Amino acid sequence: MLRLVLALLLTLSAPGLAAAQGAMTAVKAKDLVRASLVAEREALVPGGTVMLGLHMAMKPGWHVYWRNPGDSGLPPEMAWRLPEGFAVGAVQWPVPERIPVQTLMNFGYEGAVTLLVPLTVPENAKENTKAGGPVRLAGTLSYLVCEEICIPGSAELSLDLPVSSSAEPASGQAALFARARAALPEAAPGPHRTTRAGDRLVLHLDRPGLAGVSGAAFFPYAEGALDNAAPQDLAVDEAGLRLTLTPGDAKAAPEALAGVLAFTEDGTRRAYALGPEPAPAPTASAPAAPEAPPAPASEETLTLWSAAGLALLGGLLLNLMPCVFPVLSIKVLSLVRQAGESATRVRLHGLAYTAGVLASFLGLAGLLIALKAGGAGIGWGFQLQSPVVVALLAYGLFAMGLSLSGVVHLGGGIAGLGDGLTRRAGYQGSFFTGVLATLVATPCTAPFMGAAVGFALTQSPLTALTVFASLGLGLALPFLMLTLFPQALRLLPRPGAWMDVLKGALAFPVYATVAWLVWVLAQQVGPDGLLAGLTGLVLVALAAWAWERARHAGRLGTGLSRAAALVALAASLGLVAILDGDRATARTALAQGEEAFTQARLDALRAEGRTVFVDMTAAWCITCQVNERTVIARAGVQAAFRAGQVVYLKGDWTNQNPEITRLLERYGRSGVPLYLVYRGTSEAQVLPQILTEGIVLAAIGQKDVAAAQ
Q1: Do 403 and 452 share a structural domain?
Q2: What is the CATH number of the domain that holds 62?
Q3: Which of 265, 334, 335, 475 sits 20 to 30 Å CA-CA off 75?
Q4: With the CA atoms of 93, 98, 100 and 105 taken in that order, what torsion angle do they form, in degrees rounded to the nearest 10?
Q5: Pick the residue with more confidence: 506 or 75?
Q6: Residues facing residue 206 across a β-bridge
Q7: Coil, strand or helix: which one is 416?
Q8: Are 69 and 119 found together in one domain?
């Protein structure tokens, strides 16, 4: 039996490991991108401005990203190290290309690109040099370079320029800067506007006389503003150009659409900037390196073994989370029935359960690593961003609840669900209970998990899978220890009629979990999709009823009942298959005083010197929902927000959102919750994943206000 358990473990975990190792190749980013920092002038003139260029040349077939990377990816970012008084302005982005990646559409650059950055030189620049020497301009350029896989990279760039009363154009750089300026979008030559046409948006550019127009594309500044992969339908008439677009949010206001319109006219590529650009983030120009986010136990301070230790603790605490408890309580109930078995058999049940947990964690982790290496903007719990997975999990748990309630008795062949856990819980039942425990644990985030998982996803596949295996071992450990010491089972009550009563009672926490999953589904799909999901639950109940009737019918009745059950199950799966076609954008309800998170809004608030509380949440994240209802929504915290004029930004990660994913990754996290407090232009304070009122009030500096309530 031990050989069977090990074979199952290797079978389930091998595909994830192979995918992860295949995706994370030995290719280094520096071999794919040659980056350099160049200047348009030979010297720096005090009180003047000089244009700098971040030049990136990519290996053929590879690309980097625009300011809005599209459905996945990460734009290049320069962390400057400048002498005191020097300051850089906003990056001037060339017009990107549309880069399809399977069903996604990204925006970026192939071949080579130069990002222009204006540098303001202080009047006293001469005084800051040593003995009339040059000024060093430096920084770290971070980027993501992608082909079929994506590899994060960075480059240390620097440039020494003298200070002079006048400056000639830099030798050999004129052509490069001329090409860079030619690649920038121009101001629109005529009026432009956006109108709504049913569930689509129409972009109008009033410019009579257009002829030979083709290849039109619109690149929005805001992520999520459009369904990037949807067709963009071009029409040209006497008034000008019309481009019909599909919004990413059905409620998006047409007047909020801003970006770059590009098209080809008589063989010439043209591009126009339409609408206001988002406010740039505040840029520091201190001599020291940019302040790193003070995330506790960040990837810079963690080692493999410390991360594995944190993951083990996080896995242990997952057992106390409401999403895992119903499954574990059912398994413990089955152990009561097994108390009379030999110690060897009880231990094998524990090992089979542990194998199921570890195989599931390694399989999910391997898939997550592979998808992230391919440029997907996902993190821990990513499978619950799919309405198909949410619906299937709800159907499986609903079947378990019906079995516990006695509606249907499921045999050992699908042990691990419902009655198979308690009456016929063989080794397969224990194994698949571990699989189920892992699936229902992913919506929960325990303390210590965030830093460990964030560290894991920045390391090699072997290191990452080691950390995830520690997380799984922590989840399995309490049950495993109980089975390794069977004498502990003698402390449990003797089997009896009370077990049937308890079994029926345990169905109701399972039904509550199903209700929560249906609520999550309602955040992910439209009304038609929700109706399909609910109808699927009815069909699951019909299948359970018909299957149970087959146990008490004659030969003909048994065949008909089982056929009806299978047809009902097939119909429910058919309904699940259409859910992805009715996807809706995140619809977290915003209470009074809350604003939807966007990076542009956060940057603007920081530039104004405001205090901002950022809440990264998801409908399927139970830890997030508990924190919001028991801490953030409390009267004392809300009063402190108002008194301190704290802006509350809520980011909804129920569905994939690349902007939120990037902020999570910046602070070493791979999933929600994440709570940040920004006070002016200073770097964020990262709060714990389990909040208290005192923690929040101390972070926003409003303890006294709460005490007065």
Answers
A1: yes
A2: 2.60.40.1250
A3: 265
A4: 70
A5: 75
A6: 240
A7: coil
A8: yes
Question: Looking at per-residue confidence, does 223 or 429 come out higher?
Answer: 223
Helices (H), 24-109: 29-32
Q: How far is CA 672 from CA 264, 408, 453, in A?
A: 43, 37, 11
Residues 459 and 600 in one domain: no
Sequence-ordered list of residues with C-beta below 8 angstroms from that of 615, at least 6 positions apart, any chain: 597, 624, 628, 632, 648, 649, 650, 651, 673, 675
**Residues 520, 619 contacting (CB under 8 angstroms):** yes
DSSP calls for 164-195: -SS-PBPTT-HHHHHHHHHTSPEEPSS-EEEE
Q: Among residues 272, 288, 322, which one ends one of the domains?
A: 272
Q: Quick one: 421 and 477 in the same domain? A: yes
Q: What are phi and psi of 55, to 5 degrees?
A: -100, 130
Q: Which domain holds residue 415?
A: 304-523
Contact 108, 97 (CB under 8 A): yes
CATH number of the domain bearing residue 655? 3.40.30.10
Residues 666, 610 contacting (CB under 8 angstroms): no
Is the CB of residue 385 less than 8 Å from the CB of residue 657? no
**Same-domain pairing of 430 and 519:** yes
Q: Is residue 567 part of a domain?
A: no
From residue 101, how far is each of 112, 229, 261 by CA, in Å?
Answer: 20, 9, 21
pLDDT surpassing 80 at residue 635: yes
Q: End of a domain among 119, 151, 183?
A: 183
Nearest Cα to 408, choosing from 393, 395, 421, 419?
A: 419
Nearest to 398 by CA among 513, 551, 502, 568: 513
Q: Is 140 left (phi over 0), alpha (psi -120 to 50) or beta?
A: beta
- Report yes or no on 2 lying in a domain: no
Contacts of 50 (CB under 8 A, 6+ apart): 39, 40, 41, 44, 118, 119, 121, 161, 167
CB 480 within 8 A of CB 353: yes
Share of the chain above pLDDT 90, in %: 20
Q: Judge whether 299 lies within some domain.
A: no
How would DSSP label each residue in 458-496?
TS-HHHHHHHHHHHHHHHHHHHHHHHHSGGGGGGSPPPS
Torsion sign over Cα 514, 378, 445, 307: positive
CB 75 within 8 A of CB 130: no
CA atoms within a 13 Å half-sphere pointing along the CA-CB vector of 303: 2
Are the CB atoms for 257 and 232 separated by under 8 Å?
no
Q: State the residue for tokens 């020494």.
A: 160
Give residue 288's pLDDT band: very low, low, confident or very high (50, 70, 90). Answer: very low
Long-range contacts of 563-569 (CB under 8 A, 24+ apart): 568/539, 568/540, 568/542, 568/543, 569/539, 569/540, 569/543
Quick count: other Cβ atoms within 10 Å of Cβ 709? 12
Q: Does 195 reside within a domain?
A: yes
3-state secondary structure of 102: coil
pTM for this entry: 0.52
Q: Which DSSP symbol is given to 672?
A: S
Residue carrying the six token digits 């391919």: 374
Quote the tokens at residue 6. 């090990």
CA-nearest of 275, 195, 199 to 239 is: 195
What is the bridge-based pairing of β-strands 647-652 and 594-596? Answer: parallel
Q: What angle do CA 600, 601, 605 make, to 5 degrees?
A: 120
Three-state SS for 107? strand
**Kind and range of the H or E element at 595?**
strand 594-596
Identify which has the larger pLDDT, 466 or 322.
Answer: 466
Same domain, 167 and 42: yes
pLDDT (0 to 100) of residue 231: 92
